[in-house]
Amino acid sequence: MSNPSKTNDLKKNIRNTLKNRPDGELPYKKNTRKAVSKRDERAGEWQDFSERRAHISSRRREDIEDLHSLHKTLRDNLKSHGVIIHDAEDSDSACRHVLDILHKHKIDRLLKSKTMLSEEIELNSFLTEHGVTPVETDLGEYIVQLRGETPSHITMPAMHLTREDVGRLFEEKLHIDYTDNPEELTDIARNVLRQEFLAAGAGLCGVNFAVAETGHIATVTNEGNGRMVTTLPRVVIALMGWERVTRSLEDLSLLWQMLARSATGQKATVYLNLMRGASPGPSGPDEVHIIIVDNGRKDIYEDLEMREMLRCIRCGACLNVCPVYQQVGGHPYGGVYPGPMGKVISPLLLGLDNAPDHPFASTLCGACEEICPVSIPLPELMLLLRSRKINLHRGIDYEAPAWKTFEKMMSNEKNYNKATKAARNIQRYWMFGNPPIPGWTRQKDNPDIAPVPFRDLFDKIEDDQEPDDE
Prior knowledge:
This protein is of the alpha/beta class. The protein has three domains: 1-49 and 314-394, no CATH class; 66-295, NagB/RpiA/CoA transferase-like (Rossmann fold, 3-Layer(aba) Sandwich); 409-459, no CATH class. It has helices at 10-20, 27-44, 49-65, 67-80, 91-104, 116-120, 123-129, 139-147, 163-173, 182-199, 225-231, 249-264, 297-302, 317-321, 323-328, 339-350, 367-371, 378-392, 399-410, 413-429, 454-465, and strands spanning 84-88, 109-112, 133-136, 202-206, 209-211, 217-221, 235-241, 245-246, 271-275, 287-293. It has a six-stranded parallel beta sheet, sandwiched between helices. Helix 2 (27-44) packs across helix 12, helix 3 crosses helix 12 (249-264) and helix 16 packs parallel to helix 18. The model has no long low-confidence stretch (mean pLDDT 91).
């Protein structure tokens, strides 16, 4: 059940998925459409939705443009509340910071709230290799961890599975009687994880946003696990992407409402947890660490054409509306980030050589930009990356002479007539159906060339309609 696909295998992964996908309604298609429908309902409740989105997009853009200044303010406030700050240049550095903190406190079991950044840096496999057991406590993440998979969606990790899949998984892994009742399955997971919470020495959470002006670390969840992970353990580690800073609590409130509506169609998520340092006593940690992870984000910041991508708030709305994602789900993309946002962020974080086909795996229908709560121009960014990919490996240009020939054919009537006549003859005498066109006829048929050109038909009609000479 593992998911070994890599980002540079996208074409092959998609072909395999389309070839092997089960009959019937696809879970990821059904669930994404539900999410889009709920999002549209929530958006309809705000008569000024477009104006609000434009305002939030503008504020988010200002935050990204002013990131260096906001980081200075944030760090000063975090330090004033006793938060221990660690900077991580890359994945290995981030993982080692987590391991060092755990080793210092002699902790060999880490409870985790949902964080895509920990997936990005491959924290779980790193900790396991070094004798630490990571335990996912978000229900969806817990399910895919038991299956040995990566999440298939950034906000709904197990959305590719049916309840029957989960029932069989729990029967196998937790040694319980089979049930596919969602309430019973949730209760089973809750009972197992409760023992983990009570015994936890350390907890790790993601950071949806860090508030520069107050030093709050904000996490947004729909399950109580996020709050349990950050209050019951004596040591708490927050893992934050370098770009996840907002200026004020007012901005946080705007982003929170827009995030919930876009991600799951809720008016607000069930939990908004604000943490601002250690809280000795029965209701909080003795020690709080924050690891601020670069891992390519500063390079994106310096890339003025691509800086817009840092505004992404990881809601997953662009995945839900994407026609490609609806057909193949998240795993074929490899890595961590699928869908339209993944088609841009994966090549930027990993390099175009490691995700060469991502920018091309799109219809460019524009639905992702239309639904994005902070109005990131995803199709435009994909086109820019396509151009970069082509220029990156420009060797012998086979397309240039082909287009030059096409230009000569289309700009000269005699050449055009010769070319279409030749094509018509090839079609007529080709013994194996329509001649193949690389990359086209694998999935669809060639369009038939009319046996009689339209101009000939038109000339015949004109001849037939001319009056006879008297």
